[in-house]
């Protein structure tokens, strides 16, 4: 069973593991920090997921041993082993109803990207052994990504990452990102989750159409802030250790279309599929029919990556159809009337998240029929249920919508050195810690992908 206290917003992580590890990391001579980070990351994963730490360790050593510049045989062997493990866990363990090893998709994708980049010559020389293993198990990116490429993490002009410098400015910026992520997770994402859970307790066949749409909007924001908060924490922790900032979300709800939305959502996963599946198959360079086929393959893989229940494949195929519509059929129409693309984001993306959220076919059918009552003869429900739920849930919904505005976030980033803003963030952080003490924080929604 996962120790939730060792998640990034957990008290065990924030007040035990992190300060002890960071102190030891700073005191370690610079040339040996790769080694301390490798073993520290393994200790972290063992505390979080003791049953599968040997899987992580074994595949880390295997991939490091097989790493060889431009060796097709070794690259094929490593990628085949990584994919075999991923498919086994996703399919066999998924069919058995067992929880997947935490983070397995994320660290295996990092291993695959490393092997392919090394084979293709994108990584010029084979790095030092502990630099490779450190990259594979780096604890800020171990559980939910981001799936950062090796070349994003290390200076390509340097012969080695050994002796990576630390700076006070990077540590300060990283700590502020970590606190921002904790505040966003506990005070916003978890509060949004309460609204969705209330709707679930009511029963999907007993909610009004208005409440069904409110629930879809709420779940869309919950998933966004839950995952974005983790990404901010991960980025902040990596910066504290001397790595660059890796962006995983670019204000997706301000996107101009569904296509644009998925350029901004979970950026590192989208980039992985684009670079290692879509582009090698030809991308959009070989005509509309080949583009159609390539998009279908990418979205089918995306659906399988998220899970084996039918709702994930329906979700993926729904998005595939929307993107084909935007890219191949309605491009001229959307260019003339840009607001139509934004309507896709504000209306169709929440519908797709409902499909994503409900693996039970009967529950999904009930919910969609409530969203679209004109296709069913279901008995009407008192519409005042929306007002009743909003009485307690409107503040977090309003804040969730507010922080989707890129200008507001950009302003806060610009003013990050403002002492008043730092004081407010510190106060909110301790409020979040207090909330974590008196109530149980929800696990991250992407924890088992």
As a percent range, the share of strand residues is under 5%
What letter string, H or E per element, gives the SSE order? Answer: HHHHHHHHHHHHHHHHHHH
Helix residue percentage: 55-70%
Q: How many β-strand stretches?
A: 0
State the shape: globular
Assembly category:
single chain
Average pLDDT figure: 90
Biggest sheet layout:
none
Write the layout of secondary structure elements.
Elements: H1 11-27, H2 33-48, H3 53-66, H4 72-95, H5 104-120, H6 129-137, H7 150-153, H8 168-202, H9 209-240, H10 258-264, H11 267-278, H12 288-306, H13 310-329, H14 331-336, H15 339-357, H16 361-371, H17 385-402, H18 406-414, H19 419-438
Helix pairs in contact: 1-2, 2-6, 3-4, 3-5, 3-6, 4-5, 8-9, 8-17, 8-19, 9-15, 9-16, 9-17, 11-12, 12-13, 13-15
Explain this structure.
The chain is mostly helical and 449 residues long. It has two domains: 162 residues, no CATH class; 188 residues, no CATH class. It is built from 19 helices and no strands. Helix 3 packs antiparallel against helix 6, helix 8 packs antiparallel against helix 17 and helix 13 runs antiparallel to helix 15. The two termini are 16 Å apart.
């Amino acid at each position: 069973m996962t120790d939730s206290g060792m998640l990034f917003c957990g008290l065990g992580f924030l007040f035990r593991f992190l300060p002890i590890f960071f102190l030891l990391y700073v005191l370690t001579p610079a040339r040996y920090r790769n080694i301390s980070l490798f073993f520290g990351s393994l200790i972290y994963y063992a505390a979080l997921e003791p049953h599968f730490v040997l899987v992580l360790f074994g595949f880390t050593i295997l991939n490091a041993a097989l790493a060889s510049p431009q060796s097709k045989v070794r690259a094929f062997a490593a990628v085949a082993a990584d994919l075999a493990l991923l498919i086994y866990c996703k399919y066999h363990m998924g069919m058995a109803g067992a929880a997947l090893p935490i983070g397995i998709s994320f660290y295996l994708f990092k291993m695959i990207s490393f092997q392919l980049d090394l084979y293709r010559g994108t990584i010029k020389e084979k790095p030092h052994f502990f630099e490779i293993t450190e990259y594979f198990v780096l604890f800020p990116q171990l559980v939910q990504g981001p799936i950062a490429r090796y070349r994003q993490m290390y200076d390509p002009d340097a012969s080695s990452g050994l002796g990576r410098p630390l700076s006070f400015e990077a540590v300060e910026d990283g700590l502020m990102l970590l606190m921002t992520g904790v505040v966003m997770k506990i005070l916003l994402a978890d509060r949004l989750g309460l609204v969705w859970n209330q709707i679930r307790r009511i029963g999907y066949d007993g909610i009004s159409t208005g409440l069904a749409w409110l629930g879809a909007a709420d779940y869309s924001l919950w998933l966004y802030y839950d995952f974005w908060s983790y990404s901010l924490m991960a980025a902040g922790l990596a910066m504290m250790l001397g790595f660059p900032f890796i962006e995983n979300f670019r204000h997706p709800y301000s996107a101009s279309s569904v296509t644009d939305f998925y350029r901004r959502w979970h950026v590192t996963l989208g980039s992985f599929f684009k670079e290692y599946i879509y582009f090698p198959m030809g991308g959009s360079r070989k005509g509309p029919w080949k583009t159609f086929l390539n998009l279908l393959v990418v979205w089918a893989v995306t659906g399988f990556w998220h899970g084996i229940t039918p709702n994930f494949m329906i979700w993926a195929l729904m998005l595939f159809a929307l993107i084909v519509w935007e890219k191949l059929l309605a491009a001229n129409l959307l260019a003339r009337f840009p607001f139509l693309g934004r309507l896709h984001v504000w209306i169709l993306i929440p519908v797709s998240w409902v499909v994503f959220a409900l693996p039970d076919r009967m529950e999904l059918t009930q919910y969609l029929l409530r969203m679209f009552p004109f296709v069913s003869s279901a008995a009407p429900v008192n519409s005042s249920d929306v007002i009743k739920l909003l009485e307690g849930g409107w503040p977090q919904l309003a804040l969730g919508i507010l922080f989707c505005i890129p200008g507001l976030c950009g302003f806060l980033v610009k003013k990050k050195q403002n002492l008043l803003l730092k004081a407010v963030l510190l106060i909110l952080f301790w409020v979040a810690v207090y909330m974590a003490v008196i109530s149980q924080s929800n696990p991250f929604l992407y924890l088992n992908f």
